[in-house]
Design brief:
It is a single chain. With about 325 residues, the chain is an alpha/beta fold. The protein has helices spanning about 5-20, 20-35, 40-55, 55-65, 90-95, 110-125, 150-160, 185-195, 215-220, 230-245, 280-290, 330, and strands at about 75-80, 100-105, 130-135, 145, 165-170, 170-175, 205-210, 255, 260, 270-280, 295-300. The two termini are about 20 Å apart.
């Protein structure tokens, strides 16, 4: 397949995803839920819409055109994560649109949806089938892209360090509040916090607030997300963390489905949001820069902080928003 054919195959996939009926998405979610109880109908629907957005023609063609056409096909091993639905699809798109062969190890937590997409793509363009291999053990590859935790990244470094590689570790996202946010802005921040139950690297797990910040307005503004507590796994996490804080007398705020704990750490447990107070923005900027290798997104009022994501936008990346800020396409189009 030439580049034009590969582009057209993905555009056709995007069109099919946009035309999925509600009943079809519901069936996909039902099948997926049996594999991973975190992959609810809302989360699967959200992920499918996000992928369809990646594959809108004008944006997709403009994105691909930024890179040189790669003439040599390499075998790229991709180890996918499974924390949110189809989280590995961006790597799949990058590898195949460049004309490489994909050797993919799927996450046991996200097998059904990824196989569904691969089958769809092959139905659209049967000639791409020899370029895709699903394996349990990756071997005989030229380069590797692996996503996992900090712990698994150490193993990835050991096994794959001698190959050209992108190895991703744990990341999370944070938000900056100044105390003047409207109810609407804070409600949008709720999307950044609660989408995918907070399991993604683009989920806000910590907020920075000024001294003497009053959390009442914050809690009132996110009350519409209270249905999240109806999910049994989320509720179990909430009950467990609440019991730990109560037994250990850890000061915290609690609205019945989210707890706020003052803590320096960026990564908070499910159902918990860390917060930290700042005295001035200059000092906060230094603090954030010192932690930038652990931060995927920073969310704030776009008018005050134009360099950051606006409230409610962290979960809506464009196709050129690369995980960990590493340009996957540049990596794939410059392999020797």
């Amino acid at each position: 397949m030439n580049l034009s054919e590969r582009i057209n195959a993905f555009l056709a996939l995007g069109e099919q995803l946009r035309n999925l009926q509600a009943e079809e998405i519901q069936e996909l979610a039902y099948r997926t839920l049996s594999e991973n109880p975190w992959f609810t109908l809302d989360n699967v629907t959200f992920a499918i819409k996000g992928l369809a957005n990646y594959l809108e023609e004008d944006k997709f063609r403009a994105w691909v055109s930024r890179y040189p056409e790669y003439k040599v096909s390499k075998k790229i091993a991709v180890v996918m994560a499974g924390n949110i639905p189809m989280v590995g699809v961006h790597d799949l798109i990058c590898v195949l649109v460049c004309g490489h062969s994909l050797q993919v190890k799927l996450s046991s937590q996200d097998t059904f949806l990824m196989k569904y997409l691969i089958v769809k793509l092959i139905q659209i363009a049967p000639q791409i089938a020899p370029k895709i291999e699903i394996v349990e053990i990756i071997k005989d590859f030229d380069a590797v892209i692996a996503t996992g935790s900090d712990n698994t990244a150490r193993y990835f470094d050991y096994y794959f360090g001698k190959y050209p590689n992108i190895i991703r570790k744990n990341r999370t996202s944070v938000a900056i509040l100044n105390g003047n946010e409207s109810s609407e802005q804070l409600a949008r921040l709720g999307t950044d916090i609660f989408t995918y139950f907070g399991l993604g690297c683009r989920n806000v797990t910590k907020i920075y607030v000024p001294e003497n910040y009053n959390f009442t307005h914050f809690f009132e503004s996110i009350e519409s997300y209270n249905a999240i507590a109806n999910h049994y796994k989320y509720a179990n996490n909430y009950d467990y963390n609440k019991s730990i804080y109560l037994v250990n007398k850890v000061p915290h705020f609690d609205n019945g489905f989210l707890m706020l704990v003052e803590k320096e750490g960026l990564f908070s447990p499910i159902s918990v949001l860390h917060y930290e107070k700042y005295a001035d923005l200059a000092a906060l900027d230094i603090l954030l820069k010192a932690q930038e290798e652990k931060i995927q997104c920073i969310v704030a009022d776009k008018d005050a902080f134009p360099q950051y994501f606006d409230f409610g936008k962290a979960q809506f990346p464009n196709i050129q928003d690369y995980a960990d800020g590493v340009d996957t396409m540049s990596f794939l189009t410059h392999l020797i």
